[in-house]
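Input (structure):
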């Protein structure tokens, strides 16, 4: 709606409910373009101009015929001299028809100018423009399509189309080219297009359709009844004989009374089959992640049992660190086992890692606050897994070593902050504390402990990133990870 709304607010007097009405029309008018085999232009009078000039706020081309406007006319201002019929339709509130020269060209086009009425007031003019065809009799399909368009055009002129309660047209909804059935006032089929007949055959309906009610064929009786009773379009998916047909019923109104309906059909059988295959694949992937998580937790539990039997304090500490690293990887797989996509919200992984670090603070009266700021958004598993291990190591290192007891046994106070920032294909993760700090040389610090060696290896190797450290009233370690690493374009930013 942004462009339509922007143009209307900038050049016209249409506001509020009227602007929302034009927005609904622009969402649903592809149906009109396809039924009329024509380009449609939505023109609104320029503010304070008395209907002498109109701005084109939206445009749609047909998928059932040739366009007369390959170029975009949205934002163009059209004068009364160029389109006198548009001014006449706006002033009189009546549908006008005639011929004119194509805007910006010399070819002749056939015009139909339809006033767009809302709550008794004409807001705009819907202009149908189509090539001046050679003299030939239109086929049956064209006659019925144009008849349906003319009926909907009258509904536009009297303010009943677009429907006030149908805010948006669903993505993937049936189009005119997918198949059309026209119903009369008694709900009987007047006409079914060849594609509509094919969809009915796909559902196992091979009976002669003309003059028959859809309910007698066992086809979408509830959708038709609901649309006619409620005077609002209804969309429904029907499954029958291994076929899936998406049905949209649009009531045709006259004096706000239903006198027929337009039924659009789309065969989505193959689409639903692929959906089911993808759902099965997603379920399998989630189950694999769930089993990997269970296996990792089993390994962690075995290490914990082994640690109880070890007499060496150094060995016990090494086993405990290995257990924590395994659990940090298990957290990633646990999160992936709950997601249907390959992406995982990193915040859901970070929470358990922070809680584990809080538990690792020495029980000597120290009070350490852990704070997380920013948002990493969603990450693919191949980035989230090593990054979780990296963050876990940095948090554990800060919890265990940044805040040793002061001389005299006075309890220490401190803060560890995790800052996340995501910009232009890169994720920056910073772990900062206000403790005693690291040596100036990160490489030297890494040689002194396995944890920082693991961090450096994962960041520069598996993640293809950079790492640097600084001492600024404590320790600040910054990790930068490219989000297009290994040819993967990551497009799920926070929010």
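Output (sequence):
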């Amino acid at each position: 709606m942004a462009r339509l709304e922007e143009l209307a607010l900038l050049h016209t007097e249409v506001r509020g409910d009227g602007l929302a009405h034009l927005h609904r029309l622009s969402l649903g008018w592809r149906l009109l373009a396809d039924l009329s085999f024509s380009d449609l232009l939505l023109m609104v009078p320029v503010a304070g101009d008395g209907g002498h000039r109109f701005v084109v706020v939206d445009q749609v081309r047909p998928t059932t015929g040739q366009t007369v406007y390959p170029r975009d006319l949205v934002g163009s201002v059209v004068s009364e001299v160029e389109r006198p019929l548009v001014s006449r339709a706006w002033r009189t509130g009546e549908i006008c028809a005639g011929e004119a020269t194509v805007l910006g060209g010399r070819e002749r086009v056939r015009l139909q100018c339809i006033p767009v009425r809302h709550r008794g007031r004409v807001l705009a003019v819907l202009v149908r423009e189509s090539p001046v065809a050679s003299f030939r009799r239109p086929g049956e399909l064209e006659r019925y399509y144009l008849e349906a368009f003319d009926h909907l055009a009258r509904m536009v002129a009297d303010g009943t189309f677009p429907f006030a309660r149908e805010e948006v047209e669903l993505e993937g909804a049936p189009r005119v080219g997918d198949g059309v059935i026209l119903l009369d006032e008694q709900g009987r089929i007047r006409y079914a297009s060849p594609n509509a007949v094919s969809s009915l055959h796909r559902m196992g309906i091979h009976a002669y359709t003309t003059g028959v009610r859809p309910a007698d064929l066992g086809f979408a009786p509830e959708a038709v009844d609901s649309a006619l009773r409620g005077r609002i379009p209804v969309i429904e998916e029907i499954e029958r004989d291994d076929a899936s047909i998406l049905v949209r019923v649009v009531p045709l109104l006259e004096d706000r009374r239903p006198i027929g309906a337009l039924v659009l059909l789309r065969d989505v059988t193959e689409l639903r089959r692929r959906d089911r295959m993808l759902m099965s694949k997603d379920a399998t992937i989630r189950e694999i992640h769930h089993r990997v998580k269970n296996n990792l937790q089993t390994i962690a539990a075995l290490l914990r049992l082994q640690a109880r039997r070890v007499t060496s304090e150094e060995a016990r500490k090494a086993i405990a660190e290995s257990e924590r690293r395994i659990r940090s990887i298990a957290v990633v797989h646990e999160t992936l086992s709950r997601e249907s996509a390959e992406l995982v919200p990193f915040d859901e992984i970070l929470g358990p890692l922070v809680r584990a670090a809080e538990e690792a603070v020495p029980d000597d009266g120290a009070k350490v606050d852990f704070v997380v700021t920013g948002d990493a958004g969603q990450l693919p598993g191949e980035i989230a897994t090593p990054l979780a291990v990296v963050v876990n190591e940095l948090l554990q290192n800060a919890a265990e070593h940044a805040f040793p007891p002061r001389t005299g046994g006075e309890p220490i106070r401190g803060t560890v902050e995790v800052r996340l920032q995501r910009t232009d294909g890169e994720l920056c993760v910073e772990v900062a504390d206000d403790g005693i700090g690291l040596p100036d040389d990160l490489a030297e610090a890494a040689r002194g402990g396995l944890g920082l060696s693991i961090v450096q290896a994962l960041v520069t190797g598996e993640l293809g990133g950079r790492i640097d450290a600084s001492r600024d009233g404590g320790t600040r370690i910054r990790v930068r990870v490219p989000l297009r690493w290994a040819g993967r374009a990551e497009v799920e930013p926070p929010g």
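Notes: Confidence is low (pLDDT under 50) at residues 443-448, 485-491. The two ends are 21 Å apart (CA to CA).
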